Amino acid sequence: MAQAAKTKTKKRKEKKSVYEGKVFIQATFNNTIITVTDLNGNAISWGSSGGLGFRGAKKSTPFAAQSVTEQAVSKALNVGLREVHVYVKGPGIGRESAIRQIGALGLKIKSISDVTPIPHNGCRPRKARRM
Q: What pLDDT, on a 0 to 100 scale, did the predictor assign at position 3?
């Protein structure tokens, strides 16, 4: 019996078209991570200052945050992103420069929210030291 030649038809991946999305900025003392998602939370693009080649103390600088934002948002612009809600987390110094860069790249910022976790009471303190 001869085997019939099967022709594989590859499904073409549909090109996403996202008009509105969310930008998550995680700015720590050591790094800055930017994630661009659609409104459901599915990641469109992301980037970190360590991934761009910044090393050591340079990773947490405002310039590194600006460069990462430019890289991540430019990928998202190719998908058709125009309006974003910005969520900022962490105490890093790259927060403001990342937000400014989003606006400078032509995205309309609809809202800015600070979602840094703050403890309501925190951990249990150490027992008092006896002398």
A: 64
* Domain residue ranges in the chain: 20-114
Arithmetic mean of pLDDT, 11-38: 88
Describe the crossing of helices 62-79 and 95-104 by its angle, rounded to 10 degrees.
Answer: 40
Q: Among 49, 87, 91, 90, which Cα is nearest to 67's? A: 49
Closest among 67, 66, 71, 61 to 29, alpha carbons compared: 61
- Angle at the Cα of 74 from the Cα atoms of 73 and 80, rounded to 5 degrees: 85
Q: Which CATH superfamily is domain 20-114 in?
A: Ribosomal protein S11/S14 (3.30.420.80)
